[in-house]
Amino acid sequence: MIKLKICYFFKKFFLLIFIIFFFANYSCKSSKNRYQKKHTSVTEVSIFNKKDTLSVNQLRFYKIQSAMDCMKMMYENYGIWNKKISTVENYMLRRIIWHNIKLIDNNNELFTVIATGYESKELYYAGLIVFDSKEKDSFEENHPLKNKLIEVLITKMKRRNKTDSSVYKLFK
């Protein structure tokens, strides 16, 4: 009789521990993508403007300190931007745009770069949308500079200043 009560107690105890562990693990998944397996991805996104909706590709960075890390990297490498715009889909963060930027050494192509980011409990990333001088999506599958651009931008993101957070206030 005592053995049955002890077995029953341990079954309940382990079930309770399992439930607590499961929910703690599920609910504590960091909004900063601690469990995100990929560091980067190229993702198709929609950009809304006054007249149209454009589908473009965005290079996303997930292992970041802030959703503004791409803005910070661009600012550190290319200085002040040309334009800031608010977005419908992410009212907390603006899109910041640099025009006529030479991204690749030994190549005279000039690009337009849109730095953006997103923060929610489910998704957290910093992103870049890049157009070439002919206004073509530079992350399209067949773009001749796609892989070189991704390589360059990943390298620049790795080299950004990770200790100075004061610059983030410029982007709001």
In brief, what are we looking at here?
By secondary structure, the chain is of the alpha+beta class.
Strand content: 25-35%
Number of distinct helices: 3
Instruction: Please provide the ordered H/E string of secondary-structure elements.
Output: HEEHEEEEH
- Domains counted in the coordinates: how many? 2
State the helicity in percent bands.
25-40%
Give the helix/strand class: alpha+beta
Strand order in the largest sheet: 1-2-6-5-4-3
What report would you give on this structure?
The model is unreliable at 21-35 (pLDDT under 50). It contains 3 helices and 6 strands. The chain has 2 domains: 1-29; 40-171, TATA-Binding Protein (2-Layer Sandwich), CATH 3.30.310. The protein has helices spanning 2-27, 69-78, 146-159, and strands spanning 40-48, 53-61, 83-85, 95-101, 111-119, 124-131.
Spell out the blueprint of helices and strands.
Layout: H1 2-27, E1 40-48, E2 53-61, H2 69-78, E3 83-85, E4 95-101, E5 111-119, E6 124-131, H3 146-159
Antiparallel strand pairs: 1-2, 2-6, 3-4, 4-5, 5-6
Which labels suit this protein?
2 domains; alpha+beta; 172 residues; TATA-Binding Protein; six-stranded antiparallel sheet
